[in-house]
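Thread title: Can someone regenerate the structure for this chain?

I was given the following input by a collaborator and told the matching structure tokens would be attached. They weren't. Posting the sequence so someone can regenerate them.
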Amino acid sequence: MLLALVTSAIAVLAPSGPSFQPASTVEPAGLPGMALTVEEAGLGMAAPGGETNAQRGGRGGATARTEADGTEAVRITADDKVVLAASYWAPTARGERAPGVLLLHDAGGSRADFGELAELLRKRGFAVLSMDLRGHGDSANERLDFAKSTDDEKKTLWALATRDVQAAATWLRTRPEVHSTNLNVIALGAGAGLAARQAGRDENVRSIVLLRPCADQLGLDLSADLRALEGLPTYIAAPSDVREKVSTLLGPLENSEAVRINYVRDPKGELLDERRLRTGIVDWVGEQALPKRGRS
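Best answer:
Regenerated them for you:
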């Protein structure tokens, strides 16, 4: 009888709303089997041990750790909860905010395809973020795998990758050491369509570099997006044997003062294997984004 009275009293005193639950875990769509706290999924609660995203160095739904070479291995969460693997090169200069560079790989590629370019940009004074888009590289999993997808599924993945680009741009621009209104995008192959689409949506994009842009943009209309960007500084590099295709792609923009085209004759291997091209890209982006300093 006494037990029943105590039980009833507890029921009366208990709040009528839902009971408190400890920080829940979710399985991100991008990394099945890897349980993350709500904070790590980008929903703003504390992770185990009481650390928040900001304390770990991650912003915009991301977590990060520093590698031996000084780069940060980053996990960025897109708005549909897909988790993306990325690498971050912090700028070398201290005390002032640096312009940002976002690197976008080709369809079927990975962030490793940019080789030494990220480090060259960092040494020049940029903050650089390179990521594996959904279904690619370290962002691939059993559910999202570009290499195993049908043609229609690849187009869907590529269309959804615009969310990855937006999430990465937001993460980069909200770093305290990065200038929030100075973003530059460098893209390979079909990544050109993603770069142009982001530039059309993001007024903070100062310039874009398109390396070997291809006609097949997996459903994105690169020509139309570039026409909408008329006047935005654009650097295009491609092998000389695809000159006609690039000309068709650009149309009247080919003669625009804002567009610089570099046709590489007989490149050995991949375009970015060409040292002069890498240096030229870094110099050109520097001209668009870095402040000009007068001589003393």
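The domain at 67-289 is CATH 3.40.50.1820 (Rossmann fold).
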